[in-house]
Amino acid sequence: MDLNDPFEFLSAELVDPVKRTGLRNFKKNFSENYGLICFSENWSNPLLWGHYADKHKGVCLGFEIPPDHLNKINYVNERFTFSLENHLKNGEELIQKILFNKFNHWSYEEEYRLHTDLKEEDGDGNYFQQFSENLILKKVIVGCESKITREELVKTLGGVVSQVELFRVRPSFLKFEVERNKNESLWV
User: Fold this and answer.
1) Rounded to an integer, what distance in angstroms lies between the CA atom of residue 121 and that of residue 141?
2) pTM of the predicted model as reported, rounded to 2 decimal places
3) Beta-strand relationship, 136-142 and 165-171
4) Phi/psi zone of residue 30: left (φ > 0), alpha (ψ -120 to 50 degrees), beta?
């Protein structure tokens, strides 16, 4: 329910109040039991850093995940239609559209999703997915406006630091993207 797109799980046309109520209830029930972890195919897009990494002050985590655990978002220009009668016959197809259709203007995200049960709540209403053989941390990419030091990051990562590539990014000199800062001495 906290996603930043108000059309999440509501990508169908909802003129009919019965459909509208049904999909809103589906979204509410789904969000009480399942969470999403959203990934992008591309970490160099400055919009992603601006929207999801505290205006370039945060970090990007790079994971190795088996492809069969991820669902690619389907970006569409129009809301889809469905009939309540056919939905019982084609329920799986409808659920796939509900979960994985987004308006085309979000396509810059190149998004993939991992759905997970809501189990490990931290007491503040946040949920976490433990790293595992299906969610292996491989990179920590530090934003160009971040104040985090290499030493702080190494300390935070603890025993897994030797298995994780760490680097800082900067705005590209040629393109509208962020890229790895090759001068490692600039990140203390």
Assistant:
1) 26
2) 0.87
3) parallel
4) alpha
Instruction: Pull the structure tokens for residue 123.
Output: 């007491």
Radius of gyration of the chain (CA): 19
- Residue pLDDT, tens place only, 72-131: 999 999 999 988 776 656 678 888 899 999 999 999 999 999 988 888 778 788 888 888
Query: Measured in Å, how far apart are the chain's first and last C-alpha atoms?
Result: 39
pLDDT of residue 92: 82
Single out the residue of 47, 42, 40 nearest to residue 176, CA to CA.
47
Q: Which of 109, 170, 163, 159 is nearest to 139 (CA)?
A: 163
Q: Which residues lie below 8 Å from residue 28, measured CB to CB, with a gap of 6+?
A: 1
Which candidate, 150, 179, 141, places its Cα nearest to that of 63?
141
Residues 61, 44: Cα–Cα separation, whole Å: 12
**Which tens digit of pLDDT belongs to each residue from 16-36?**
999 899 889 989 999 989 989
Cα gap 135→64, rounded to integer Å: 6
Query: E-assigned strands of 136-175?
Result: 136-142, 165-171
Distance of CA 85 to the CA centre of its chain: 33
At 142 the pLDDT is 97
pLDDT score for 185: 87
